[in-house]
Amino acid sequence: MSKGKDAKPHIGIFGRRNNGKSSLVNALAGQEIAIVSDFAGTTTDPVKKSMEITGLGPVILIDTAGIDDVGELGEKRIAKTKEVLKTVDLAILVISNNNFGEEEIKLISSFSDLAVPYFIIHNKSDISNITNNLKTKLKKEYNAIVIDFSVLNPINKEEIIQNILKLMPESAYRSQSLIGDLIGYGDTVLLITPIDIEAPEGRLILPQVQVIRDILDNDGIAVVCKEREVDAFIRRMEPKPKLVVTDSQVFLKADASIPKNIPLTSFSIILARHKGDFEHYVKGTPHLSKLKDGDRVLILESCTHHVSCDDIGRMKIPRWLTNFSGKNLEYEVVTGLSKLPRDIHEYAIVIQCGGCVLTRKQVINRLKPAVDAGIPVTNYGMAISYVHGIYDRAIAPFMKKEQTATDYL
Fold first, then answer.
1. 3-class secondary structure, 226
2. 87 or 118, which is more confident?
3. Cα 18 from chain centroid (whole Å)
4. Phi, psi (5° rounding) for residue 111?
5. What is the DSSP string of 168-209?
6. How high is the pLDDT of residue 408?
7. Predicted TM-score of the model (pTM)
8. Please, is 30 exposed, middle or buried when counting C-beta atoms within 10 Å of its C-beta (0-12, 13-18, 19+)?
9. Shortest CA distance to 10 belongs to which of 80, 59, 51, 49?
């Protein structure tokens, strides 16, 4: 389950079957949106519901299937529940009847591994309150906040809301500026935006819109033109732009057209710094020079879209990389947050798109298996600039003056 274009903070509700997860979602949202039953295993696919929290804004609650489900269908439900873990910003672990065991320990381990903050709700306190021994154990061993709660008598619902506010990472709801540290009041940024077969009819693509908005938010001036108009325009443009941002696929044209004293980068590299694992991208990109015959390249797209005959991820990057390396390479493209078709160790390098429809946490978690396995990772824009020989220039605006790309290696 992907956040997709719904970038509100996501709160996952996890626990065993029949612990009252769906009832908790209903109690928090104030309306019945999740199926509630006395029978274990009612929830199948994760269920999402939006609610408003004062001081935080709109959030998404995700009700998941029980982590103790059984049978072939149960295993599929559990797999979907585990996938949700990679998309949430905050987790609530629901237990009941003082039952805390191996399943909960595994979940908490997953929370820790993915750096997901969490707290614990002991539900059904109208039937049995949490024991002092269990509450003490959870606080001592896991440093966890524990709330005794009853969905039938939710008198301390506000305590849950306050802990959501307390534990929700600020990055989940307060977006950082894309290029605010690179420009000042009144600075002009030139954006080179090709209008080709991949450009959506009548509008710009999302990364271009996001950068334009960020320029305006930082009191800058956005100037937009196609690549064919750059040469004539840049000569008469006064004052010269503080920064030029290009679509990655016309990097070579932009590099030739823009004077070397004007910083140049791409929309994808801006997003790489903003949402991706920039440090590992910088480390991983030069490994494009080390690929060998038979190496398998994994290309990760964050969204699904109509595939054109000259698609950048499926067509252009493989073509450019094959020409650059001179090697016989194999390419696999995976869209959204879909499961990988093979073990991560079978890939020589991973190329992640800009991730414009994902959150930073989703991109980081998407790349985590590769990073943990020591597989090099890079980004569309960084890979394209590297194979075209303009990598150092493309990342220069985001590097400290005393650093170069090789300092990361």
1. coil
2. 118
3. 31
4. -55, -45
5. S-GGGTSPPPSSTTT--TT-EEEEE---STTSPTTS--HHHH
6. 45
7. 0.69
8. exposed
9. 59
Q: What architecture (CATH level 2) is domain 278-398?
A: 3-Layer(aba) Sandwich (3.40)
**Delimiting residues of CATH 3.40.50.300 domain(s) in the chain:** 10-172
pLDDT score at 304: 56
- Could you report the per-residue pLDDT of 327-367, keeping only the tens digit for each? 999 999 998 777 899 999 999 999 999 887 777 888 888 89
- 82-101 as b/e: b if 16+ CB within 10 A: ebbbbbbbbbbbbbbeeebe
- Per the listing, tokens 């995976």 go with 334
Is residue 401 very low, low, confident or very high in pLDDT (cuts 50, 70, 90)?
Answer: very low
Kindly report the CATH number that applies to the domain delimited by 188-269: 3.40.50.11420
Distance CA(338)–CA(302), nearest Å, equals: 9
Q: Which of 96, 104, 185 is nearest to 149 (CA)?
A: 96
**Window from 136-140, 174-178, 186-190 with minimum mean pLDDT:** 174-178
Beta bridge partners of 83: none
Mapping DSSP onto H, E and C, the string for 355-399 reads CCCCCHHHHHHHHHHHHHHCCCEEEHHHHHHHHCCCHHHHHHHHC
pLDDT tens track for 27-62: 898 765 544 444 444 445 678 888 899 888 889 999
Q: Which of 104, 122, 95, 103 is nearest to 18 (CA)?
A: 95
Instruction: Report CA-CA distances (Å) from 73 to 36, 41, 242, 329.
Output: 19, 10, 56, 37
pLDDT cut 70: percent of the chain above it? 89
Question: Which part of the chain is CATH 3.40.50.11420?
Answer: 188-269
In contact, 114 and 142? CB cutoff 8 Å: no
Contact assessment for residue 188 and residue 221, using Cβ atoms and an 8 Å cutoff: yes
User: Please, what sign has the CA dihedral across residues 264, 385, 216, 204?
Assistant: positive
Q: What is the CATH number of domain 10-172?
A: 3.40.50.300
Residues of the chain with CATH 3.40.50.11410: 278-398
Render pLDDT for 193-229 as a digit per residue (tens, 0 to 9). Answer: 988 656 667 788 888 999 999 999 999 999 999 999 9
Distance CA 148, CA 133 (A): 13
For residue 350, which of 327, 366, 328 has the smallest C-alpha distance?
Answer: 366
